[in-house]
Structure formats: structure tokens, C-alpha cells
Amino acid sequence: MEYRELLLLGLLRRQSMHGYQLIDFIENNLGQCTDLKKPTAYFLLDKMAAAGWIRFETSREGRRPVKRIYSLTPEGEIVFQRLLRDGLASSEPTFFWEDVSLAFLEVLDPREAASLLEMHRDLIGSRLEKVRTAPDHPGTIQWMVEHQVRFLEMELAWTDELIRRLGDTGGA
Amino acid sequence: MEYRELLLLGLLRRQSMHGYQLIDFIENNLGQCTDLKKPTAYFLLDKMAAAGWIRFETSREGRRPVKRIYSLTPEGEIVFQRLLRDGLASSEPTFFWEDVSLAFLEVLDPREAASLLEMHRDLIGSRLEKVRTAPDHPGTIQWMVEHQVRFLEMELAWTDELIRRLGDTGGA
DNA sequence: TATAACATGTAACAAGTTACATGATTTC
DNA sequence: GAAATCATGTAACTTGTTACATGTTATA
Questions:
Q1: What is the mean pLDDT of chain A?
Q2: Distances (CA, A) of A122 to A97, A125, B94, B157
Q3: Which of A57, B61, B95, B132 is the most exposed place for a label (fewest CB within 10 A)?
């Protein structure tokens, strides 16, 4: 699924913007939920403009580099509607590659394993705090953030349980 | 992190095997938690053999293609131990790209959105059932599977709540 | 006056996937 | 005799990242 395209189309649908603005919004507001990098964004904007999904007007302030202000075309709206429906109804498997370490946990001394997992838990904890304390977003964008919170809470509880299990083994 | 390498090293550490056997085991036993494809596996085995992490003996049954039976070298053991510890203590952000659709949910009629989310939920439900009914695995490999179960349960509850929220909006 | 922010890109690389190629053996 | 399984790979492609390039304007 072309989620990056969907994201850009959806944001442009709400408001015409230039590339830098889009990237800035995504980094500052959705940085916890996405990771769309600058060159990727510019590349996709070019691609979608070539495909006729978006078009741009150029504008210039002072002698700064020319800005391209992108907006959705009618074809872009159709693509947006399609991607939105496809994305909602579908479900791609999520793999936790980090769990490969979990699979071989028994190799380590339970105490060392527990202390490593405590570092892991702390990292999750600080991410959770960051997402929780972030300012609210308008409309259903907030639901993206909420989902991330639920996920991190689950991860925290799960890691705590693993540490407890290791404690039971090690203490026995 | 080189989780695919860690997985192969860890499995070879428990038992020497040839490539096909490894891939077969991963597909049939860890198919719900990983997605290591055949060419990737063969490529990584070559790479790790060249790096001296594993070595192989060739064996042949009848006139079938020669098998390469891989086993860990002492250097491979060191790499395994390092990757294991790094992987356990670290934590990389998990992004839910599917949630981009969620961010623009308000665009749709709540009833249509709810029915699309119901399809999404059913897909998660059937995945959950599949993981739950899979046979148990020895040792901490089972923890990988358990984590996946926890995750899918969370996803199911979350999707159900979204559908309920949409119902509240639509009914009011 | 140096640094950060504004604004847009290119080029090279990395990782992994898909589709294809090869050929023997067992099972239906 | 056809299809599935055993066993190993190659080549081309896709996707996205990192590092680099360019030049302006506001801020410390």
C-alpha cells in the first residue's frame, strides 16, 4: 500500500502547501507515528505531479528559492479516496524483528537477560512519555497518536511480564 | 540491527542445518512472526560464510543437488552473543503506516468507515486465531509467538473501539 | 559572524523482494 | 506422466535512506 502517498495527498487535500511545509508538519506532528524522510517526500511529490494527482504553482518571496505550492487535482482526489478505503479495510502483518532476540533469551543468564530487558523497557517508557505529553491534534489525526500510545502501553506491560518471568526462573 | 542474521545464527547454534531446512523451519514455525524469504536466506548464508561466522560441509544423497550443512564457527558465536545482547537492550520505533488511513477517517461517512473497519477487524481476527491455534514451540521461541498474540489482541480491541466510536458519531 | 531555519533537490548506496533458472526425486 | 517437494541459487527491480549540493534570510 502506498501509505506515504496517501499521507501527502491527505494533507494537501486539507490545505495546499509546499514541500518543506509538508515535511515540517509531518516531522513535528507525526514524528512518533511515521518516518517520511525529506528526499523521499520531494521524490513522491515529483512523482505524483507527473502522474497528475497533484499540481503546483510557483511563488517566490524576496530572493529565496522558488516555492512550489502543491494542491490536489480531481484525479488526485479519486486516488486519495481509493487509497483511503483500501488502507482502512486491509491489514498487513506486523513483524517484531526485535523478538528474534527473545527467541534466544534462554542462552543468557536470567539476571543479565533481565537487566538488558530493563534497558529495553526504559526506552519504551521514554517513548511513551514523549507521545503522551505531545500536544493534541485536530480530528482523527489524534487517533494515530492514540494508537501509538496503546501500542507502547502494551509493549511496556509485556516487557515487564518478561522481566518478572525471568525473576521467577532466576530466584528459584 | 541484523535480526535476520541473528535468527539464522541462533538456529544454526542449536543445530547444524542446510539452507532449505532453515527456511523450511522459519516458514512453518515462525511464519507468523517473521518473513525471511528464500533468496535472502541463501544470500545471508553466503555472506556469513564469507565473513567466517559460519562454515559448511557438503553432503549428497543419491544424485540430488549437493547440500551445504552449515554450522557456527567460534567467531560466529561471538557475533551471535553480541547481536543477542544488542537486540535485547535496544528498541526501535514501530510505525503503523496503516494508521494514515485512520488520520483521514473523518472524510468518510461514519457508516462506511465502520464497515471498512469491520473488514480490517476480521482480518486481524483470523490472524489471531491462526497464531493461537499453532502448535507450541520449545523454550523462549514460544515468547515470540506470545508477543504476537498480545499484539493482535490489542489491535482487535483497538479496532473494536474505533468502530464503537464511529457508531456513537453516526447514531447521534 | 556564525548558526539555524528556509527551500529544493541529486547521486550513490543498501536492503530485500519477485520472478526466474536448474535439475533430481518422490508421490499421486 | 504430472505435480509437488527437495535444494540452491541469479538477475532485475523496488523502495527508501544517507550524504551531499545549493543558495537565501533571520537569529543569536
A1: 92
A2: 19, 5, 16, 25
A3: B61
